[in-house]
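#struct-help
A.M.: can someone run this one for me? Single chain, 106 residues.
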Amino acid sequence: MSKNVEGISTADPGTVLHWYDFLCPFCYVGQHRTGILVRHGLDVIELPFQPHPEIPAGGATAGPRAGPMYEMLERAAARSCVALALACAFAGHTTRLGHRRMGSAA
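D.P.: on it. Structure tokens below:
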């Protein structure tokens, strides 16, 4: 089935939409997989988004980065040879400026 995202037709089965945010650890680890898709001849369309635009410009305190979900993420990062520092809090940061520089809405 064909979908249309922001005017981009995805009717071609060789097209993959890669939605990502700059601070999302899942998106960071997933960059490795995007490279694999490109090497296999797929057309990857990168679509940045800001998942929490309500966060004020000064940022917000992030909760603890622990538990089964983050353990799984650390294993995925290790398998992809990606350095991941989940202990770092993102307090005081938002991705708003990065999205502006990339030309996406934020």
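A.M.: thanks! The CA atoms of residues 4 and 10 lie 6 Å apart.
D.P.: also worth noting: The first helix runs from residue 25 to 39.
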